Amino acid sequence: MAKANEIKYLTAIKQEKRAKKFCRFKKYGIKYIDYKDAEFLKKFLNEQGKLFPRRLTGNSLKFQRKVSEAVKKARQMGLLPYVTDLLK
Is 59 exposed, middle or buried (0-12, 13-18, 19+ CB in 10 A)? Predict the structure, then answer.
């Protein structure tokens, strides 16, 4: 017969909690997104130059739209490439 210290129960595996996503623009009070700041806009692009979706960046709808407009404007001005292999 098994002793008390030998009995093992099946329990759910503890998973780490992810940090809650937040809109950095609301948190830090950023009201204007400058299209001339290419390094800041690169944070919202993946390696191919595509925009990250809201669910990954944590931006609110209002600021995600502003970011996409700024990226489009920067691409048109030649500050950001439309497509690339290794952006970062």
Answer: buried
